[in-house]
Amino acid sequence: MRAGNAACMLRQLAHSTPSTKRMRLLILDDSPAFLEAAQAALESGGMRVVGVASTSDEALHRIDELRPDVVLVDIDLGAESGFDAARRLVEASDPPPRVILISSHAGDDFEDLIATSPAVGFVAKSALSVDAIRAVLEGAGEAA
After folding, report:
1. Which of 49, 84, 105, 115 is the most exposed place for a label (fewest CB within 10 A)?
2. pLDDT higher than threshold 50 for residue 105
3. Three-state secondary structure call for residue 69
4. Candidates 1.10.3370.10, 3.40.50.2300, 3.30.365.10, 2.60.40.2470; CATH matching 20-139
5. CB 80 within 8 A of CB 74
């Protein structure tokens, strides 16, 4: 009976555990407070945050070093445009990571720019979670 229960529990866990938990994630944002909070929240949800960066140059070095699957890129990076940073990260990396744009502003404010960017989607910072990342990746036709 115990072996049967354990097998049943393992099957349930396999189906309920999102594969994004094995995904390697890098966060690019110029706010140290947001980087810390986002990393803690995503890791508590089971996602593997392998690094953070505050500039696109730093993110490029971290991508070469850490090889993340996904990079969250803030649209407003202070002196830098997150859209330009997303293009640089995708163009300079082989293979390129999937990029998800994030912002404290609504995605509707940037709809055309998001659509023409190399990003697979957008998540508002207020809605950032493992589930939101998974939904964007699945909506982009990517196996999450």
Report:
1. 115
2. yes
3. coil
4. 3.40.50.2300
5. no
